[in-house]
Write a structure and sequence with these properties.
- Helices cover 17% and strands 0% of the residues.
- The chain has 2 helices and no strands.
- The chain is flat, with a radius of gyration of 17 Å.
- With 78 residues, it is mainly α.
Length: 78
C-alpha cells in the first residue's frame, strides 16, 4: 500500500449504470479470467442497468466536504 501511495492515486467517485459492460468496470470481474486486471473487486456478478434505473428512478449523488492533502493533514485527530 505504501508503494502505491508513493506512486500517487486518484480518487474516483461516481453514480452510474453501464449498458456496455454490465456495470463491471470498477469493482467486478472484467474480461477473461486469464487477462490482466480481471479480478477488480468483490462484485463478480453482472449488473442490470435497467433494473437499477427502474428500482431507483430518483437516484442522485452529492459529493461535498472533500479534502485533499498529505496523509494525516486533512482532519483533526481525536
Amino acid at each position: 500500500m505504501g508503494e502505491a501511495l508513493r506512486r500517487g492515486m486518484v480518487l474516483t467517485m461516481s453514480i452510474w449504470d453501464d449498458y456496455e459492460n454490465s456495470m463491471e468496470w470498477l469493482d467486478g470481474c472484467y474480461g477473461t479470467k486469464t487477462s490482466a486486471g480481471y479480478n477488480r473487486g468483490p462484485c463478480c456478478g453482472k449488473g442490470d442497468p435497467k433494473k437499477v434505473e427502474s428500482d431507483f428512478p430518483n437516484s442522485f449523488v452529492k459529493f461535498s466536504n472533500i479534502k485533499f492533502g498529505p496523509i494525516n493533514t486533512t482532519f483533526t485527530p481525536p
